[in-house]
Amino acid sequence: MEFTVSINAISQVTHNVKCLRFDKPENYHFVPGHAADVSINKPEWVEQKRPFTFTALADKPYLEFTIKCYTDHDGVTNQIGQLKVGDQLVISDSWGAIEYKGEGCFIAGGAGITPFIAILRQLHQEGKAKGNKLFFSNKTEADIIYKEELTEILGEDAVFLLSSQASTRYENARINEAFINANIEDFNQPFYICGPDLMIEEIAAILVNKGANPEMVVFEK
C-alpha cells in the first residue's frame, strides 16, 4: 500500500544530510530499524523509488527520514535535497530485516547509521541504551550524523572513527578485521551492521568467522 504525505519540516543535519518530517498516515506502523520505499510526488520522479529508513520514534505522531543528498549527479537524493516544506513524498508500507535483538554492537558506515537512529532513540527513551556499543565510521568529522545525540545516548560507548581525516579527537581507522580483533572480545552477542554493501559483506563474514551466531548478525539482506 502507498501513502502520499506532505513534508511539514526540513532541517539540516550535516553539510549534505537533511531530515524530512511529515505527519504519520492513519494506522501507519513501523518497527525501529525498518524502512520504506520512497519517491518524490512529481511526474518525472514518482516512479523512481528508493529505500529510506525511519529515524523518528515509533510512537510519535509524525514520521521522518534522515537522508544523505548526493549532488554529484541528478538522482533521487539530489532532488530530495531541493524539496521544500509542502512538497510531497509517496511512501510504501514499512519493511526490513534490521530489528533490535538485545544488547550488542552496532557497526555503521556513513549514512548506514540511519537504521540505528530509531533503535537507539527508542532504547534511550526506555532507559535501555546502556550495554550497547556503537562503532561509527565516517570520512571526516563533518560527516558524522547526529554526533551529539549519539554521544548523549551512549556516552563513551559511541566510538567515532575517521577514515580520511587526521584528528586528535577521533581514531583514524577503518573497521576491518584488525580493528575488530583489537576492539571486540565478545562474539556471543548481537551485531548490527549497516553501510556500503561491500562493508556489510566483509564485516558480517569476519564476525561469523570469529564465532558470531549468523542469526544474530543483523543487516538488511
What's the gist of this structure?
The protein is α/β, with parallel strands linked by helices and 221 residues long. It is built from 5 helices and 12 strands.
Structural class, from secondary structure content?
Answer: alpha/beta
Helix content: 10-25%
Elements, N to C (H/E): EEEEEHEEHEHEEHEHE
Strand content: 25-35%
For the largest sheet, list the strands in their spatial order.
4-3-6-1-2-5
Describe the structure.
- This protein is of the alpha/beta class.
- It has five helices and twelve strands.
- The chain has helices at residues 76-80, 114-126, 147-154, 177-183, 197-209, and strands spanning 2-14, 17-23, 35-40, 50-53, 62-68, 88-92, 105-109, 133-138, 158-162, 171-172, 191-194, 217-218.
- Strands 4-3-6-1-2-5 form a six-stranded antiparallel beta sheet. Strands 10-9-8-7-11-12 form a six-stranded parallel beta sheet, with helices on both faces.
- The radius of gyration is 17 Å and the shape is globular.
- The model has no long low-confidence stretch (mean pLDDT 97).
